[in-house]
Amino acid sequence: MIAPIPTGVPAEAVVPPVRRPVAAAFRTLIALAAVTGIVIDLAIGSPPQVLSYFTIQSNVVVAVVFGMSAWRAWRGRPPLPPWMTGGTLLFISITGLVYHLVLANDSSGFSMTGDIAAQSGWHSVSNQLLHTVTPIGVALDWLLLTRPGGLRLRHAGLWLLYPLAYLAFALARGALMSPGSTARYPYPFLDVDDHGYAGVLGNGVVFGLAFYALALLVVGLDRIRPDPRGRENRISSPGAGPLK
To answer: How many CB atoms lie within 10 A of CB 190?
Structure first.
């Protein structure tokens, strides 16, 4: 017979923590990739300008969230809330997809291939870390090391608050800077000088709808993807009593 659990005893005292060293190591590498790319860009560029890019901000989110996740996995602590890890996946996916499908694509109408081709040395390294390595790493972690089933439709709308806030930030920053300033607007589709406010807001609506569709895809995949970790071990068999 299983003895009853005393009232007030924390779950950690009953169920010993299960450390996940593989997950901790992988997440540490992803966090380090994000930090390395950010530090390189800050070292070779103007920090205020560098920090204005969605790429940098989303990689800061990756570095913080994955650093916390790595520590929790190593110590056997409960994982971060699904809305946080799912949002991190969405934001860094936006970074990777916009870069590869829009900014590095000559047919997109918002191409920056000339600037990209001119990059070399450390700048090229940071470019690959921030736009390719971290998005792929975060996606692999979500698919292979994160349990499914915790996301809800409301999370898709909640996540869009950040891209919306970024749009407001980019436009306000550009309005406060002098005309002709270097990198006044961080991305071509946000350039009011070229498209006007109506054009930029139109671009914002198109990108916003695409981001919302991507968020819904993340939520939908979370409901149908298999659990990579399998069922958690139980303290007792289902028939032994209410304690599981």
So the answer is: 23
pTM of the model: 0.86
pLDDT by 10-residue block (mean), the chain, 244 residues = 53 67 97 97 92 97 98 95 97 97 90 75 92 98 94 96 97 90 89 94 97 97 85 40 38
**DSSP class per residue in the chain:** -PPPPPTT--HHHHS-----HHHHHHHHHHHHHHHHHHHHHHHHS-HHHHTTSHHHHHHHHHHHHHHHHHHHHHHTPPPPPHHHHHHHHHHHHHHHHHIIIIIT-TTSSS--HHHHHH--HHHHHHHHIIIIIHHHHHHHHHHHTS------HHHHHHHTHHHHHHHHHHHHHHHHSPTT-TTSSSSGGG-HHHHHHHHHHHHHHHHHHHHHHHHHHHHHHHHHS--TT-SPPPSS-TTS-S--
Q: How many CB atoms lie within 10 A of CB 139?
A: 15
Name the residue among 70, 72, 77 with its Cα closest to residue 24.
70
